[in-house]
């Protein structure tokens, strides 16, 4: 891979919330990062104004306004084309980077063959490893076993998600890594034609890893480069998010499954879509129940304070 050292971070933001500015500050506080290109997909006006103000005061920050939500993959491609670095570091807009993590990823990348990708260790805010940072190969069977939870209880079956496995001491190959913190050279990004823009949200990172491996590159998980992914900050409708995930999975399987897989997908595809949407409904119902419980408790506490103040 390239021996150049300039790193361009690329973010795509759609209604990310206040953590966006924490993420921007964490990137700009790392002197190893040459620039941050932020693609603004229809954030509220007050956020857009604040981004422009920051960019005017910070020469390392470039903001590109698209005026609409064009999807994660297309946004990354827009940002990568505008970037000037030797390396492209793709980051979620709710990701907090530790100083030095990007340089570790570059050092690892320099020892890899062309068309290779390096992924980072993604952490929850409590320091635990987040689901999705290191993953196996995505097939209809691995997806079924993972979504149903059978992979965690059946003997001899390795889960598609690998975060429960022992953490390696150094970089190791993995079939796919997370687009929340993913690094490759500019040459690799161009050779792969960036993300496949048919994926609007989700699965585009698995797809680009699959294409890189088929072109002879390596996908490497770098555990020494850690990023905190806050998550669940976007105001996007969870049902819509899960719908796009289902569409992405179906597209991936249509692209890479053999003839038998295509036949199975006729039945499995709709079932997978219904399962993901059903999970979204349960998550939303649970969140609303928690909110209602919190409001009830707040009213009870207020009533108690009023009674106590009247005594």
TrEMBL record:
Keyword RNA-binding: no
GO molecular function: glycosyltransferase activity
The protein's enzyme class: transferase
Keywords linked to the UniProt accession: Glycosyltransferase, Membrane, Transferase, Transmembrane, Transmembrane helix
Spans through the membrane: 263-287
Pfam family, one: Glycos_transf_2
InterPro entries assigned to the protein according to its UniProt record, in alphabetical order: Glyco_trans_2-like, Nucleotide-diphossugar_trans
Protein EC: 2.4.-.-
Domain Glycosyltransferase 2-like: residue ranges: 8-135
This protein's record includes keyword Nucleus: no
PANTHER family recorded: GALACTOFURANOSYLTRANSFERASE GLFT2, RHAMNOSYLTRANSFERASE WBBL
Family named by the database record: Belongs to the glycosyltransferase 2 family.
Name by which UniProt lists this protein: Glycosyltransferase family 2 protein
Species whose genome carries this gene: Glycocaulis abyssi
């Amino acid at each position: 891979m390239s021996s150049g050292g300039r790193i361009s971070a690329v973010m795509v933001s759609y209604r990310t919330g206040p953590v966006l500015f924490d993420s921007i500050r964490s990137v700009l506080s790392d002197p190893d990062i040459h620039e941050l290109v932020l693609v603004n997909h229809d954030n509220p006006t007050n956020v857009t104004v604040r981004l422009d103000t920051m960019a005017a005061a910070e020469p390392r920050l470039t903001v590109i306004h698209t005026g609409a939500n064009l999807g994660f993959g297309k946004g990354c491609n827009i940002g990568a084309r505008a970037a000037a670095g030797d390396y492209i570091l793709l980051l979620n807009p709710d990701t907090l980077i530790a100083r030095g993590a990007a340089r570790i990823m570059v050092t690892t990348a320099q020892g890899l063959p062309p068309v290779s990708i390096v992924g980072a260790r993604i952490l929850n805010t409590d320091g635990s490893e987040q689901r999705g940072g290191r993953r196996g190969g995505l097939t209809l069977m691995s997806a079924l076993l993972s979504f149903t939870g059978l992979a965690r209880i059946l003997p001899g079956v390795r889960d598609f998600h690998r975060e429960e496995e022992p953490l390696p001491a150094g970089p190791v190959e993995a079939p796919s890594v997370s687009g929340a913190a993913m690094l490759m050279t500019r040459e690799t990004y161009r050779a792969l034609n960036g993300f496949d823009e048919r994926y609007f949200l989700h699965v585009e990172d698995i797809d680009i890893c699959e294409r890189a491996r088929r072109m002879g590159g390596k996908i490497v998980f770098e555990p020494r480069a850690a990023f905190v992914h806050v998550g669940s900050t976007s105001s996007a409708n969870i049902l819509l998010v899960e719908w796009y995930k289902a569409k992405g999975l179906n597209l991936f399987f249509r692209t890479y499954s053999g003839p038998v897989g295509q036949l199975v997908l006729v039945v499995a595809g709709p079932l997978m879509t219904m399962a993901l949407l059903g999970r979204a409904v349960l998550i939303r119902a649970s969140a609303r129940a928690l909110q209602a419980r919190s409001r009830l408790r707040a009213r009870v506490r207020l009533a108690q304070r009023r009674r106590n103040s009247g005594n």
